[in-house]
Amino acid sequence: MNYPVWDVAFGAGLLMALVAGLHVFVSHFAVGGGLFLILTERKARRNNDAQLLTWLKYHTRFFVLLTVVFGAVSGVGIWFTIGLISPTATSNLIHIYVWGWAIEWVFFFLEITAALLYLYGWDKLEPKVHEWFGWVYFVTAFASMVVINGIITFMLTPGNWIANHQFWSGFFNPTYAPSLLFRFCISLALAGIYSLITASLQKDAELKARIVRWGAIWTVPSLLLLPVFAWWYIRSIPQLLWVSARGAMPTGTHFALLACLLLGGTLLLVLVSLVRPSRLHLSLSLLLAVVAFGAMDSFEFVRESIRKPFVIVNYLYANSLYFTPMPGDGGFTVDNISSAGVLQTAKWVQNRNLTQDNQVAAGREIFRVECQSCHTANSYRGIHQYIVLRHWDQDKLHAMLGVLFMMHNNVMPQFAGTDAELNALSAYLGSLQSMNPPTDLHPVGKTVFEQNCSMCHQARPDDHLFTNMPKDPQTAVTALSSLPAMFPIMPDLKLSEDERRALVQWVDTQRSAQAATGGN
Amino acid sequence: MFDPSMVPTPDPNPLPAPYWVFKLLLVVTFALHILAMNFMLGGALLALLARWRQKGSQFGTRIFYDVAKKVPVMMAATISLGIAPLLFVQVLYGQFFYTSSILVAWPWFLVLVLVVCAYYGFYFVSYQGQRRHQAVGRVMLFSTTLVLIIGFIYTNNLTLSQVPANWAQKYFSSTSGWGLNLAEPTLVPRYLHFMTAAVAVGGLYLVLIAWSKWKQDQQYARAIFQLGGKAFLYATMSQFVIGFWFLFSLPKALRMIFLGADSLATSLLCFGLVAALVSIFMMSAALKKDNIRLAALGVTSVTALDVLTMSTMRELLRMAYLKPYYNPQQFAVQTQWSPFLIFLVLFVAGVAFWFVMLKRYGLFSKTKAAQQ
After folding, report:
1. What domains appear along chain A, each with residue ranges and CATH number?
2. CA of B356 to nearest chain A CA: how many angstroms apart?
3. CA-angle at B206, arms to B205 and B208, nearest 5°
C-alpha cells in the first residue's frame, strides 16, 4: 500500500511464477552445464574423440544461446517482475544486499564474457587456452550461484539478521549450505539432462549412445544425492515455518509430493534412455526435460509456500506490511494500520473516508492494497470461487476475515484495518457473489464442517474441535450458538440451530468411528 | 491536485555506503551501459544502412555482415553493463522508479520479451549470414526495430519516474498498467536525443572496426571509416537541433539549471557543447585527410568524455526534477565495510582479469598469437 498495486487480471503471482520458473531451469543449467562442457572437452581430447568434440562444439552453441540470452534476460526479468509485483520486498532486498548484488554482477560480467569467448574460441584457440576459458566460465558461474544463494535463502531463513541486521548473519543463514549443495546437485543433473537434447539430434548412433551414457553419469548420481541435501535443507528450516505448509491447505505438502514424484519420473526416464541409448529420440529427451522442469519448479513452490505468510520471514509479510514496527517503516505494520485505518495509511487509494455509499468501492481498494499481492477477485487464487464454494454471505465473510491469521494454519497475515474497513472489505467480497447462499433446510454435518470450520480445523481426533466440543449433544449445540463465548478468538459464525445440530451429530459419528478403530 | 505524500516511503534499511559512492557508481556504470547500447543499436542501424546503400558501394553487403556479426556481443555487453545502473538506480531512487514502472507495467514487462526476441534475431543474423541473405536482412530490421521500441519504453518509464505529479491521475484512471507516458512534453525530444546519440556512437564503433582492419585491407577499411565517420558527423550535428529541442522542452525552472542557475550544470552543458564541436571538427578533418588514428583515438576520447558529461547532466536533471520530493540527506548511512571492500577488490580485479581474458583470446595482438 506504500506503492501502487499493479492490477493483473489473471493474477500477478502467475506471471512471477512463469518468469522465475523458466529462469531457474535455465540458470541452474548455466552452472552445471559449464562444468559439463569443460570436463567433456577434456575427455574428448584425452581420447582423441573428434566426433565428440564436434558434437560438443554444437552443444556449446546451444548452451550459450540458451543461457546467455534467455538465462541472462530472464534473470533481469525476475528483477523487473518482482519490482512490479513486490516493490517493497525488492527495495528491502536491494538495500540490505546491494553489495551482494554488486559482487554477483562482477561475476556475472566475467561469466558472460567467458561464455562468449569459449564459444567463439572453438575454432580459434589452442586447446589449453580454450579449456582455460571453460574453467573461467564455470568458476564465475558457480561464484554467482554462491552469492545469489545467500540472498534467496535469507528470505526463508533470515537467521540472526532479524536481531542484528548484519549482512553476513543474513547471508550465511541456516539454510545457506544445504541449499547451495542442493542447487549445485540440481545443476549437475540438468547438465546431463540438457545434453540429451542435442545428443538426440545426432545421426551417428554410436556417438549418440556415448553421449547418452556420459550424460547419465552426470544425472543419475546427482539425482540420487538430491534427497540427502533436501533432507538437510528441510531439517534446517524452523519447524514453526512448516506449519503453514502442512495441514488444512497443505500447498507445501502437495508440491513436495509432486516434486518427489517428478524427481522419480526424471530418474526413471534417464534409465529408460539408457536402455537403448543409440536410439534416443528427441521427444524422449524433451519429455525428460519437461518432467525435470516440473520437479524443479515444484521444489521452488514448496520453498515459497513454506515462507507464507511472509516474503522475508519474520520481517515482511507477502502483502508488504512489516512484521514488527520499526523506525522508518512508514506506518506499514498491522498494529498501526489496525488503529489508524488502511484507507488513511495507504498511499494509493481514492476513498479516504467510508460512507454508506462507498462501501463496495472502498472495499475494493482495500482488497487491492491488502490482498491482491496473492489473490485475485475471480482468477488465480480467486476469492469469488472460494466463497461460492462455501456459500458465505456477507456476515460470515466478515466473521471469517476477522480470523484470517488462523485460517489454513497461519498461511495469511492478520487483516490490518479498522472494523469499519473490515465491513467494507466484506461488502466488496460479498458483492462478488453471483448467487444467494441456499438456505438448506436439512443441512449435512460434513458440509457444515467443510464450509464453516475446515479453514482452521482438521477432521482429526486431536484437533481442538474434536477434543474440546462438549460430549453431551445438547450442551454442544447450545455452546456452538456463540463461538466467541467458547473461545474469544473464534469468529462469531451465527450457525443456525439445524446446522449446529447436524455438525454435532457428525462430530459424534466421527468420534465413535475413531474410537472404534482406535480401540481395535 | 497532486498530494506529495503519495510518493512512497523508502524502506527502513540504511544505505550500506555513503550516498556519493552510489551516485558515482550510478553515473559511471550508466555511461558504460549507454556506450555498449549505442554500439549495439547504432551498429545495427548502420549495418542496415550499409546494406540498403550497397548499390553505390561495393562493400555494402560485406560491411553489413561484418558489423551484424558483432551486434549480439554488444547486446550481451549492453545487458550485462545495464544491470549495474539498474541496481544503483533502485538503491537511490527506488520509490520513484518502482512507482513509475508499475504505472507502465505491461510495456515495462514486455521489454523482457522484446529483448529476448531482438537478441535471438541478432544471433540468427550472425549465424545464418549469407546463406539466407534475404531473410537475414528482414530479421535484422525486425530486431533493430524492437530495440528502438525498447528504448522508447525506457524513455517513457524514466520520464514518468521524474514527475510524481503525473502519477495519481494516471494510476486512478487505470490500474492495469497498460499506459505509457505519451503526454510528457520532453518524451519525443529526449528519446530522439538518445537514439541520435546511438547513431553517432555507433558510427564511432564502425571507425574502430575500420581501424582494426586498416592494415589488412585498407580499401575496405576506408569504406567502413567513411560510413561510420559520416554517420558520427551528421548525427552529432543534428544533435544541435534535437538537443536544444530537448533543452527547451524542459520546464523553465529545470532548463535554467543548464542556463546559468546552477553553475555545475551550466559548465557541463558548455563543456558538452564544446566537446561535441571539437569532435565534429576532428572527425571532419580525419575524414578529409584519411587519418583513421585521429578519428579512432582523438574523436573516441573526446566522445567518451562527452558521454560521461552527458550522463552527469542527466543525473543533475533528475535531481532537479525530484527536488520537491527527494532529499539525499534523508538516507541514514551505515556502511557495510566488509562486503563493500570485497566488492571493490573484486571489481578492480574483475576489470583487470577481463582484460587478461581478452588478451589471452588474442584481441590485442595483431598476429593473434593464441591462434592455432
Report:
1. 12-317 (1.20.1630), 334-431 (1.10.760), 445-519 (no CATH)
2. 11
3. 65
